[in-house]
Amino acid sequence: MIKRPAAGKRLFILDTNVLMHDPTALFRFDEHDIYLPMVVLEELDRGKKGLSEVSRNVRQVSRFLDEMLLIAEDSDAISNGIPLPSVNNGDMPAATGRLFFQTTQMQRDLPKELPSHQGDNAILSVAIALQQTITDHTIILVSKDINLRIKATVLGICAEDYYNDKVLDDVDLLYRGSSELTADFWDDLNRLESWTADGQTFYQVEGDVVKDWYPNQLIFSPGEDHNIEAVVRSVTENSSDIQLINDYRKDNHAVWGITARNREQNFALNLLMDPEVDFVTLLGQAGTGKTLLTLAAALTQTIEHKRYCEIVMTRVTVPVGEDIGFLPGTEEEKMTPWMGALMDNLEVLNKTEGGEWGRQATNDLLQRWIKIRSLNFMRGRTFLNRFIIIDEAQNLTSKQMKTLITRAGPGTKVVCLGNIAQIDTPYLSETTSGLTYVVDHFKYWQHSGHITLLRGERSRLADYASEHL
């Protein structure tokens, strides 16, 4: 029998997958209390072995629990609840919530259709027993498992998803990286100055509209009289410096033979070719040109400009269908089947004259500059003067994304590509993806840029399929 929480508090029963997803979930419920059924501890024990991200999370949860149990002096302290420290921006204020463990066998009041020996059903039986025992406040089951939440709701148990890892309430609120100026933008400015430096045109604008701008945001005015496409270089409280961008839609500004076909692609090439922008994120549906533009910019800056010593490309290996099993060969040979997008785009970029021999010679040259690496071997590495491309980044968690980006050393540029509408990783959604996480957190940094590509440029067949299927 646990001590009843104070009036107004809620008791959250945590499912195993919540702790596997976020080990710090124990500290994310503020003043409310947490209850861990014994079956959750058993499932954590079974999942602690291995080198996967989930196994590491389980081991971290076990360490957290072990540290907190040191506070409890005897069994009475455990039955009365162990104080939980709240985590807020790295600060550890006075504990208000408590952690309770299941210490007694509870009556299993479940329908006979639900076998009690299954882990999910055992959690449901604990929730029902707590509802019958503690009647003065709400018992809430927190789980990432949709089917468990459905069964809980059917049985009259309040069930919720784990929302603390959500970056945004709605994916439509995600930063797009570009903004269209209003028709009366120039008339509403308090002050406007212009100058040129190193062949580039700059403007300093002053007005209320700049408060909503971010560094390296792309702004444009589609009107014929004041047609402008610029990038925000700096933002203060009421003024901003903007720079007119290069027009990569013209053949004389082609990047490795590739020209932009729309405004968003032109914005993307400006970010990719800018040496002052160390981190770039490109979002867009299939066929918008994310990989092609990135590879063209990488090859130009690595081979022609000698800005980087090599190109490193990686992606998470999550299959769309059934897993094909073991792949023989070296690390790069194992990753090759996952890099179909790289090979397809290299064929487009490899337009060398001279027949089959000339194309093969150019392809061999490109392969020497491009290295394919697995995510499994990234921890502990440091990449110096590399152009790193992270493909299919929507399948990465926020922690995996942090692990990859922190590998960057001096002179390295990191580009993340993805489509948050095509997430294949379990328990990740558009609002919890690592790609969404970095887009939202890097928008304030002056050396990062983001753009959402809107138009597909693959083919009329692909465009029609995207719109109608």
Automatic annotation (TrEMBL):
Record-level Gene Ontology MF annotations: ATP binding
CC per GO annotation: cytosol
Key words of the record: ATP-binding, Nucleotide-binding
SUPFAM superfamilies named in the record: P-loop containing nucleoside triphosphate hydrolases (SSF52540), PIN domain-like (SSF88723)
PIN domain ranges (all copies): 10-150
InterPro entries with a match to the protein in the record: P-loop_NTPase, PhoH, PhoH2-like, PIN-like_dom_sf, PIN_dom
Pfam families attached to this UniProt entry: PhoH, PIN_4
Family: In the N-terminal section; belongs to the PINc/VapC protein family. Belongs to the PhoH family.
Protein name: PhoH family protein
